[in-house]
Amino acid sequence: MKHLIDPTDLTVQEIDEILDLALDIIDNKEKYSESCKGKKLATLFFEPSTRTRLSFEAAMMELGGNVLGFSSADSSSATKGESVGDTVKVVSCYADIIAMRHPKEGAPLLASMLADVPVINAGDGGHNHPTQTLTDLLTIRREKGRLNNFTIGLCGDLKFGRTVHSLIKALSRYSGIKFVLISPKELKVPEYIITEVFEKNNIEYEEVTTMEEVIDRLDIIYMTRVQKERFFNEAEYVRLKDSYILDMNKLKNAKKDLSILHPLPRVNEIATEVDADPRACYFRQALNGKYVRMALMLTLLGVNV
Ligand code: NCD
Fold first, then answer.
1. Which of 21, 115, 246, 250 yields a CA-CA distance of 20 to 30 A from 218?
2. If we measure between CA atoms, which residue out of 163, 123, 146 comes closest to residue 16?
3. Collapsing DSSP states into helix, strand and coil, what is residue 226?
4. Rg (CA), the chain
5. Residue 141, number of CB atoms within 10 A of its CB
6. CA–CA distances in Å: residue 235 to residues 2, 34, 156, 161, 241
């Protein structure tokens, strides 16, 4: 049995196969509509979510399966003091696969050690979010036609943004990727990303504090929200929250084929006027999230169609 906790739990080949399967699902939806008949997905969300939880649920429904679960810690036995370990052991009796989001880094890993069914990390604190990464990779592949040889700017909260950490880990295994890290100095990527990912693998990266100085060089810009819930200090959040706002004016100097990604939810990081620009990929990205989760669940459940 296989779990997905960290994006590097999957080899590059396995990721490419999941993306291929997602593309086949997009082209042949009917073929897959009964492929998880009789299977159940449990979504255990101890932290809020719109896209991730609903796209997992929609994905299982489109595969002909069923879903159960909870969408906040308040509505689970966590409020009675039950441990994550006991919760997953019990849910393993009711479901064939589990998607778990938790505010504590490492909770889904612990769950995977105790569960009798595959566990998917749907976001653990400020750490990882591997299914968002699969979504991002599918989006880049569909928009750019490739997963190598481009310059990607990652902008916003690179410290607490788990989507950024997982995306860097995954993309750094493809060739010819240059990373431009755009953040205030307070929200730079954690040191382990610099040493364990960039330096260890000899990957080209640069750290800057403004979007304007690099926008013309980027093939992709990945915008992120400042992660309010991970701040210890409200005043610090208020000071940093609007550090970057991408608008049509800033896009004047951007490449004509720039791809603008955002895992969503958006707060102020992208002006709504940008939504109508063909370079805005973020709503297409949200749709890709459903297809890639269909492909992931088929793979982890070992269903061959
Ligand atoms: C992200 C997350 O939960 O980390 N959202 C998502 O899953 N699409 C990004 C965010 O909350 O800012």
1. 21
2. 146
3. coil
4. 19
5. 17
6. 42, 51, 17, 19, 10
- Amino acid of residue 228: K
Q: Which distant-in-sequence residues (6+ apart) come within 8 Å of 96 by Cβ?
A: 39, 40, 41, 65, 117, 301
Residues 68-122: pLDDT tens digits?
999 999 888 888 889 999 999 999 999 999 999 999 999 999 999 999 999 999 9
In sequence order, what are the beta bridge partners of 220? 152, 259
Q: Is the whole model's pTM more than 0.70, yes or no?
A: yes
Q: What is the longest distance spanned by two Cα atoms in the chain?
A: 55
Task: Indicate if 51 belongs to the active site.
Answer: yes
Is residue 140 within 8 Å of 259, Cβ to Cβ?
yes
- Give the separation between CA 118 and CA 106, rounded to whole angstroms: 16
List the one residue out of 180, 136, 130 whose CA is nearest residue 158: 180
DSSP alpha helix (H) spans, the chain: 12-27, 51-62, 84-91, 107-114, 130-144, 162-171, 191-192, 234-240, 248-251, 282-301
- What type of residue is 40? K
Of the candidates 245, 249, 289, 235, the residue with the CA atom closest to the CA atom of residue 267? 245
217 is catalytic: no
Q: At what angle do helices 130-144 and 162-171 cross, to 10 degrees?
A: 60
Q: Are 134 and 140 in contact (CB under 8 A)?
A: no
Q: Is 162 in the pocket of ligand 1 (CB under 6 A)?
A: yes
The size of the chain, in residues, is 305
The helix (run of H) or strand (run of E) holding residue 70 is strand 66-70
Nearest C-alpha to atom 6 of ligand 1 is from which residue?
263
